[in-house]
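Much of our argument rests on the idea that a fold can be written as discrete symbols. Part of our work consisted of pairing the sequence of a single chain with a tokenised description of its backbone. No coordinates are needed to read the tokens, only the vocabulary itself. The record that follows shows the chain in one-letter code together with its fold in token form.
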Amino acid sequence: MKTLSTLIIFAVVLLSGCKKDNYMNSAVITGWDLRMCASCGGLMINFTDSTRPYAGVYYDLTNTAQSLGLSDTVSVFPIYMRVNWTHPANAYGNIITITGFQRE
């Protein structure tokens, strides 16, 4: 009986330490959007593992570099992440906001 209770306690402690990765997508931050237009600027991200800026379908982020743990001047791209994201209610086009992230 003592062995069974010890085993159960061990299993509970072991399982309570597990954390599931609940991020929606793998993503790549490819760099700064340097185009000169009204909705341009900021960081660019894609969900296709492309490491080239402006390649394929990419999105501009409303997040600042600092809010993602990046430096405005020192960050080396590409940066691989797992992210949760949403389209801002007042934005149009390929603009998203990262709501949660984990660097890979």
Notes: The two ends are 44 Å apart (CA to CA).
